[in-house]
Amino acid sequence: MNLTKDGLTIFNARYALRDDLGQVVETPEQAVIRISRAAASAEKDRQEHWAAEFGRLIGELWFIPSTPIWANMGKPSSMQQPAACFVLRIEDNLESMYQTLLESALIAKYGGGLGYNFSEIRPKGDIIHSTKGRASGPVELIRLYNCSAAMIAQGGIRRGAYMGILDCSHPDIIEFIECKLRGELDNFNLSVGITDLFMHTLARDGDWTLSYRGEARGAIPARQLWDQIVESAWSCGEPGLIFLDHIAAGNPIPGEVLNATNPCGEQPLSPGESCLLGSINLARMMDTARSGIHWERLAHTARSAVRFLDNLIDVGEYPFAFIKNRTMASRKIGVGILGLHDLLIKMGLAYDSEEGRCESARLMAFIAEQVEGATAELGKEKGNFPLWGRSSFSILRQPRRNASCLTIAPTGTISLLAGVEGYGIEPMFAVAYRKTYLQEGRPHRLNVFSPLFMAACEKQGVASSALHEAANRGTCQEVKGIPADLQRLFKGAREIDAGDHLAMQVALQKWVDNAISKTINLPASTTAGTISALYRRAWQEGLKGITVFREGSRAGIIEIGR
Predict the structure, then answer these.
(1) Is the pLDDT of residue 311 over 60?
(2) pTM for the complete prediction?
(3) Which residues contact 71 (CB under 8 A, 6 or more apart)?
(4) Is 266 marked active-site?
């Protein structure tokens, strides 16, 4: 593997096998062999062939598995837990609340991110008939889960990460919206579950009924609730929105509940399900000889990625039997992408251009075609997923190994491993920045100066003084001596218009059967009205969720410039 210095640092910190003294005893090449053999062991025939095939994909950095696969699979004396995403149900009783808390702790221990919909929890102040006491409500329960997450290191590499969703009709929705304003719940991402009915009520400026288990508990103007969501998002970046009806419309198994996602919102799952993730490295899909995309390599990578992830469902170990049963029943996987911006730069296309979006959509459509073909072929070879007969695929008698197949994750850590500058579908953050990450509980800093930018400047003979200024400022915009075409290509996330951020997500969501993790980065001067318009447009365009971040609204781990 040809890892960068930062990539090797990340590998040693988070993925490498260690001895009893905590010393690294594995090279990246050995880790590739380890996880490739683990995936190939699911094959009845030609295991060596598939181990070599998977090893080539990963070793060439064409396909990057998610963190739990690197951290767990093939390691002796370790739970072979490959899934990145889990959703659990919390029922409205003390036993369920604490049983789910225990299950969450053990899942997080082995690198799984968790999501919950807390709407089953009775509102704060309701009578508890068995004790005649008063209910604490969903927000207090979220605080309990947040405290637990702070104590757990996922696979020894990071703190637990959770997603909390509350439906917009729950009587405690205002408290839920406002709880992040006090700086609470560092281990939770929060999203409001929005329905089409609410959006229609908002459009006609009507009153919105709050209810619990079908019983009306009052009403407030829909605009008041909407404004509070927007004001909180403006102030601290949360809550995001999850569009429940859009998720339900894409549910491959309509009879299954689908109202929650993993922590970053890209993977809707039914309670008890888990999902395995991995990403195609688009930065390695450039055909330099023809100055275009290497379509054959991309097709081969996408199809092999499906088999790799599907195999790990069979050889993986699960923290609880009910998760194994639910995961095996639907066999959901998430093939995604990273390095999109890197590829666009190499092709001379600006991220925020119509041409850039069209090429990105063409890429995603091609990947979707290959992935759909691969899961159909696996369905014929190995059998359809067990719930196929209840799925939308059975109506047309379409063979299918996996209930869902495409997911675009944020890919923060594995993007560093791959040495790419565009995480997931995000644009590069800046041409120069400093990022802090935790290693064995201690903060470490990465200093990044875009290699793509430096190479482009060297090719065009840009003076070192201009490079120095761009590095210090963290941007090449309006830097004297930087050519206009480079300024156009090398816009960072905060320099791209919010509408163009959203347009890229819309362009790709059409080809993704699960969802997309995407942050709409906004300058500090952004108004609440702009966020409101973005949230409305996201619903109108059929997105499954949206998250925004206004610069300066909360402390971050990335500093612009050097």
Answers:
(1) yes
(2) 0.95
(3) 14, 15, 111, 155, 157
(4) yes
